[in-house]
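Researcher: Going back to the complex we discussed earlier. I've cleaned up the inputs and rechecked each line, so this should be the final set. Can you rerun the prediction on the complete assembly and write out the structure?
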Amino acid sequence: MSHSQESGGRRLDRRRFLTTAAVGGATIVGASALGGLDAEAAFADPMPSLDAAIPSAFAEGRIVAMNRNVLDVAGSHGERHLIQLTNATSIWKLRTTTAESIEVGDGLYARGAAMPDGTIAADAVWVNIVNVYVTIRGIAKDRLHLTHGSDELVGHIVPDTTTASYLGGALTADLSRTRIGQEAQVLGAWRPADGAIDIARVSLGH
Amino acid sequence: MIPLVSNLAPLVCAALLATTGAAKLFGRQTARLAANTVLVRVFNDGRRATLALRVLGGVELSLGAALLASPVALLPGAGTALLGVGFTGYLAYAKATAPESSCGCSARAEGPIGARSFTRAGLVVAGGLAAAGGDAAWWSEVSRRPGGSALVLAAAAAMLLGLTADLDRVWLVPLRKARIRVFGHPLPPASGERVPVAATVQLLENSLAWQTAMPVVRSALLDHWDDEGWRVLRYAGSYRDARGTHPVSVLFALDVTLTVDTAPNPAVRVSLIDEETEEVVPSSVLAPVPVRTPLPLAT
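Model: Rerun complete. Updated structure for the full complex:
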């Protein structure tokens, strides 16, 4: 208890320090351009490594074991990966989170650098991420009924997390413009227990 | 009521068996569907599995015909109940050994075996038993009690409709649409809402600041917090100088109220903090975005 409070306090102090640095002497860059490395980037080609001597690596599969900060991952094609999480590893599981929320049995996509000992030092890990094109077949207070081809899916709406984008506009928490019969792209986190999806983002009218 | 149901059971069972049997026996997709069932593993061969599914369709069809033609006889009813028991056993076996396989019950594309498949198989057992216990032909029952018969048949039809996933779009989607029309949209429009973090990330990723800092950024979003009107987004990164590669925190500070809709060209504060020394790294390590020179125009 006291330990977690202490570490929480440290975390806030650190944020305070970083805010001062970020807002105080920062470079201000205006105007617009293109690019992206959000959750969707899990499906993009791996970025070239900054250091030419370190080859970049990509891994995908189900977590079969966890040992401190090393994930033992069984790939879909029979391969095996050891993925090392560090302080600098970003972890996404429906939202930006920490290594504590990762469980054995989760699926993941990871990107990082291949280490000489065969492990992957992860830069970014996306847990249970799914990206599906669906048709909305029903709307309820806490979920959307979806079909993907002939498969039925339940997409849970998570308060303060689920966002929608209409016609390429800004992401908003307003889901009231969804309609039955619409085609949609759903980015979310798969729930291994029941096969449903927690929706991170639903894009409509693209 | 009970004799009414058991006398009409042959008609209901015959309708169900004829539909599913004909679909299996004559359906063009039977081969493709058989490939998704556990039968392939049982018979070790896709063609034999298809043949088995077609034979089963034939059996269902002839049972249906027998139920229609001689509803009072014991044999068709007992046969139907037996078939239902067989279905249940097959489903339990398939569920236990290959939970992802399709049931192949109605010879349509169906998802994994679920409660619906089991309920349908159970109903075949119950219908068969009821039919075996009937004491009058369904046509005499219908002519004797037309009102009650219509009610029972309508209830049976509704039940079968509800148990068939293929027909969901026939009734379920219009029902849901009607409910939204009557009761309004179940999800309230958000007014005066807080800008979601995802929207701020989207704003950042559309900005020149992002493009400038991208060569330094290595991770996805690590942490975020709001402070005095700013939303700070932290990423992990690394930069190289003469002394080697150094880990840094890449911090972006944006106005917490802005989105790509309200601010197409946001001002973004970018700073790099060295993770080891905790010092601000000069912004010269950020790659300036090259200015594009316009191509010469032919005049």
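Model: Worth noting: Residues 197-285 of chain B form one domain.
Researcher: Good, that matches what I expected from the previous run.
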